Every structure is written in structure tokens, then in C-alpha cells.
Amino acid sequence: MVDIHQYYSHALKIVLEAGEILLKGFKSPKEISTKKNEKDFVTQYDKLIEKTIIDNILQLYPDHKFIAEESAANIILTKEPTWIIDPIDGTTNFIQGFPFCCISLALAVENEIKIGIVFNPIINQLFTAQKGEGAYLNNEKIQVSCTEDLNKAMLVEGIFTKISLKNLRGSRVLGSAAISLCYLAMGAADICYVKYLKCWDVAAGILIIQEAGGIVLDSTGGEYKDIMNADILAACTRKLANNFLKLKNDNF
């Protein structure tokens, strides 16, 4: 029997402990290497945090599956309980000493995200959500803004090329999709448009936004169905999403 509350309780403890590794690593020398290209960085801490999370979950739930950035990126999502892990979302920030990096952990059961946890221990921001139970920042409930007009909207982490930013209040690039989605969930941003990422970048943040009252669409504005697809448009309101899509379509 699936016990989401128990899974959440264990996962939260594991993430908080892994956060201590991230925080220590943030202040320490790093062994930096690259993966697919010269700007796709990985450190010993990415690998250590991921291994720590997987090992601890396997001790509790040996039959659970994993989709994780550094060690299990080729696993296909099934209906089995599957943990989707980004050990450090924002590795470049982590290397540079820029404090927007986090651990992102989600649990999918029956192809639906049930748990989302995003933890930035550097500035002590812990975003959490369980399906149907709201979204929280450091145990205080959060919700998206009610912005509908583009000229009052803040865009985060978006693809800015060919989009006229004079139509928006402003834009920010934080270097972490997970944090950007959570900032939308807490009302500090209004739109997040991302492409060319992976499921582990967005899975936890998607649930946190949905539980905070926001909407998540695919990048064309259609219904978001495939959680392995990280091309998404997230917004605080449907009207704002529609207005943004019209702006994007008029400028591409």
C-alpha cells in the first residue's frame, strides 16, 4: 500500500540531511568536471548528494525506482514509485558561489507527481508539497499571485530571445529552474517558461506550483500530461498564460 505521508516524512529528513552536504560543499573547494559539453558542469558534491539520497531511500524502500541526473538518467518512468532527483539544481551557481542552488526531489506514483521538495540550505528556503495538501515555504503555506496583465508580470528563467520584455514588468534569470518555479509558487514571480531541460529540473517545482494554485502547461499552452517532458509554461493565472502565449507567438 502506498503511504504518501510516510514517504514524505522520510524524504524530508533525507533531503535536510543532504542539504548539510550541499551547504558544506558550497563553502569548500570543488572538483569540477564536465559532462555533455564544456558548460555542463558536475562536482563531487553533485555525485555525493545523489548517492546519499538514493542509498537512504533504498534502505527504506528497496523496490523503489529512480530517475536521477548523475547516475540513473536513462531509466524510463513506470507506474512504480519513482524518485526524480536533481542533487544540485544550479551547479554553475554552486561553483561560482552564487547562492541560488538547491536539492530537488519529487516522487511519482502511477505517473503522477505526489511529492515535491526543493531545498536551498544556503539561504534556508525549504519548499514542500504533497498532492492535494497545499504548498509550503518553511512550513508556512504559500500561494501564487493573481496577476493577469503582462505589464504587471515578472518572468523568471524564460527564453527571452525574440520576446519583447518591454511588455513585462521585469525578468530574472536565477540559474535554477527548480528555484524559479518555487518563486512563482510563492508569488515572487508570475511566469516561468523553460525548454531544453530535463524532468529532474522541474518535477518537484511543478507540483509545488500546482499546490500553490498556479497552472502548468506544456510549452505550446496545451495540457501538461507527460512529466518526463520538461518544456513547460507555468503561470499564476490562466489569463496571464494566455497573454504570454500570444506575446510569444507574435514574436517568434
UniProtKB/TrEMBL annotation:
PROSITE patterns: IMP_2
Signal peptide residue numbers: none
GO molecular function: inositol monophosphate 1-phosphatase activity; metal ion binding
Pathway where this protein functions: Polyol metabolism; myo-inositol biosynthesis; myo-inositol from D-glucose 6-phosphate: step 2/2
The EC number(s) this enzyme carries: 3.1.3.25
InterPro entries for the chain: IMPase (IPR033942), Inositol_monoPase_Li-sen (IPR020552), Inositol_monophosphatase-like (IPR000760), Inositol_monophosphatase_CS (IPR020550)
Residues at which Mg(2+) binds: E69, D86, I88, D89, D201
Gene Ontology BP annotations: inositol biosynthetic process; phosphatidylinositol phosphate biosynthetic process; signal transduction
Reaction catalysed by this enzyme: a myo-inositol phosphate + H2O = myo-inositol + phosphate
Cofactor dependency: Mg(2+)
Superkingdom to which the source organism belongs: Eukaryota
Similarity remark: Belongs to the inositol monophosphatase superfamily.
Protein name, as recorded: Inositol-1-monophosphatase
Species annotation: Melanaphis sacchari
Gene: IMPA2
